[in-house]
Amino acid sequence: MGVRLFDRSGRRATLTPAGRFVLEQGRRTLAASRALPDAARRVADGWETGLTIAVDTLFGLERLYPLTAELYALNPSVRVQITEEVLGGSWEALAQGRADLLIGVAQVQHGRGLPVREIGRVEFAFAATPRIRSCANTSPSRLQSCGAIAP
Amino acid sequence: MAVDSTRSGATLTTGILDPQPVVTVPTLRAKIEAQRPGLGVGFLPRHRIDDLLRRGELVELTLQHARPAQMTYMAWGGERPGRALQWLLRRLDPPSALQKLLGLDAGRTGTAK
Predict the structure, then answer these.
(1) Burial level of B64, CB count in 10 A (0-12/13-18/19+)?
(2) What pLDDT does A139 receive?
(3) Same domain, A17 and A76
(4) Average pLDDT over residues B60-65
(5) pLDDT given for residue A91 in this prediction
(6) How many domains would you assign to chain B?
(7) I want to staple B46 with a disulfide (CB 3.0 to 4.6 A). Which of A79, A80, B28, B107 is the partner?
(8) Mind telling me how many Å the CA of B76 is from chain A's nearest CA?
(9) Same domain for A36 and A80?
C-alpha cells in the first residue's frame, strides 16, 4: 500500500492512525466477505435482498415493527423498509416498484391484475377535545371563541 | 355543520368543507395529537383513539352526516413474490391476524351514534 502502518520509534511498535484505519476496515471487509456466500445462497433460494412495505397512515407504521422483527429473525439479510403513506397514493408506489406490499389501500383498482386481499372495515369517530362539552349548543363557527378549538 | 379542521397528508381531502381554517399535518398520528388539545376537530379512525375516548381525553360528537366506515385492502406486486413476501402473506392470513396486528380489532363498540 505504500503506507506506514506501524510506528516503531518507541520500545513497542504501535499502530499509526493509518494502521488503525486499515485494521478496522480490514475487519469489516473480512466479516462482509465471510457473510457473502450465505447471503448469495439466500438470494439464489429466492429471498429478496430488500422488501418495502407501505402502510396507510390510518394504521401507523409502528404496527409493523413486530412483524419486521420476526422476518429479521428468519432471514437477517432481507433489508426491510417501512413507509407510511396517505390514502390514495399507495397504488402508485406499487405500480412504480417503490413498494412490494401495500397495507391499507382504500379501493380496489380494477384492471391492474394485482392480487388484493380484504383487511377489514375502519370506523371513524368525529372527535374533539373534552373542552368542547362546555360549548354545547354552540354553532361550529363559534367553537373557537368558546374555547373548544385552540385559537 | 362541523367538518374536519385537521388534515393528515397533503393529498387527503376526505371530509373537508371549505371555507374553514384548516391545519394540515403529515400523518394520522399527528392529526390525533393535534386534536387532543383542541387544535382542531375531525374524523379519526375509532381503533386509533379507543383508549383516548375511554379515558375522556377526546370526546366523540354525533354529527348529522357521519363518515361511513371504509373498507381497506392489502395489495402486492403480482409476479413471482420472493420468499420474504411469501412468508409475510402467509403470516398475515387470515384477515383476523392482520386486523389484530393493526389494532383494528380494538374499539369495535358498534356505531356509538
Answers:
(1) exposed
(2) 64
(3) no
(4) 86
(5) 74
(6) 1
(7) B107
(8) 4
(9) no
* Co-location of A97 and A34 in the same domain: no
Q: State whether ipTM is beyond 0.90.
A: no
Q: Measuring CA to CA, which residue among B3, B60, B80, B48 is closest to residue A104?
A: B48
Q: Which of A138, A98, A141, A106 is nearest to A122 (CA)?
A: A106
**Set of chain A residues whose Cβ sits within 8 Å of the Cβ of B70:** 58, 106, 121-122, 124
A82 and A144, same domain (yes or no): no
Whether A131 and A96 map to the same domain: the answer is no
- Per-residue pLDDT tens digits for B5-55: 555 554 444 445 555 677 788 888 989 998 898 888 889 999 999 999 999
Residue A139 is part of which domain span?
Answer: 121-151
Please tell me the total count of domains within chain A. Answer: 3
Share of chain B above pLDDT 70, in %: 74
**Cα A49 to Cα A79: distance, rounded to the nearest angstrom:** 6
Stretch B64-81: mean pLDDT, rounded? 86
The verdict on residue B49 lying in a domain is yes
Q: For A15, which DSSP code?
A: E
Cell of B60: 366523540
Q: Which residue of B has its CA nearest to A89?
A: B11
**Predicted local distance difference test score (pLDDT) of residue B13:** 43
Q: How sure is the predictor about A144, in pLDDT bands with cuts at 50, 70 and 90?
A: low
Could A130 and B58 be called an inter-chain contact, meaning their C-beta atoms sit closer than 8 Å?
yes
C-alpha cell at A63: 404496527
